[in-house]
Amino acid sequence: MKRLLIQTMLAASLMAGASVAQAAWPADKPIEVIVGFSPGGGTDVMARLIARFAEKRMPDAKFIVVNKPGAGGTIAFAEIARAAPDGYTIGMVNVPGFNFLPLYKPTHYKPEDLRLIARVVEDPIVIFAKRDSDVPKSLPAIVEALKKKPESLSFGHSGDGTVGHIGLMQMEQLAGFEASAIPFKGGADARSTLIGGHMSYALLTTGEVPDAANVDSPFMAVTQLSQKRTERFSSVPTAGEGGIDVSIASERGFAGPKDLPPEIAKRLEALFEGILSDPEFIAAATADAPCWPSSQVVSGLLNSRKIPRRSGPWRKS
């Protein structure tokens, strides 16, 4: 009887402690926002922008972006999944890579290990070249060159299984060519390598190279992998116009551990919804296209995507 009483008191104490912790959130320590790519890339820039606006709307909170790049974002996704479900560790997830990678290689997380909170942006992929390089500057010319000499042109992307890599594999399958794929730890690394003249192209989002729309930019947008031309790159043809029916974009959202308390998850959902409807934020995020977070949109992050199927490992450059 005495033992049962002690166990009951201990359980009650733990429940009370959890309630106090939830009541204190988010004032008692900083909230870490984990990003799976290097500083300066599209995911990192968006995370830092949202963190700045989050602190304005939640004055008691401090949001700190923590970069854990590598393995196409899976290092960061696993870190989010393993975190204590107390609301002090959340992170950015990138679809389709978030869903795609566990299907094709061993990872330390499963998509169901995370609780999706809000979708914040959909950013189409574009093939960028260095403007003064002598590489082909149209998709048909790229395909022709690669069919004549496989792997003669190199394409940098943010890591195996990321949206740029998937887009490249889709084009290879549909058009019947083989390119040389070069994985990086983030868009910023691929961008700097391209401008240094060390590879032919980079597959990056529109928000990662916004100045490419200007004729005096060192970057040139060759083809956008979208169903229709984006406003920023209205003069750049789509892949469909170039003969390959491929459309793919980086969908970025926030997630936490699967056991994140519903009360905290709802507060975060409301926070992000408020930020995405803020005219000041929308003006600051002109490089990307903010989206409304909602249960319908969030659940869409886990829907199956049109992704290429391969029986063997990815080719290494």
Automatic annotation (TrEMBL):
This is Tripartite-type tricarboxylate transporter, receptor component TctC. Belongs to the UPF0065 (bug) family. Residues 1-23 form the signal peptide. Keywords: Signal. Gene3D superfamilies: Bordetella uptake gene, domain 1 (3.40.190.150), Periplasmic binding protein-like II (3.40.190.10). It comes from Pollutimonas subterranea. It comes from the Bacteria.
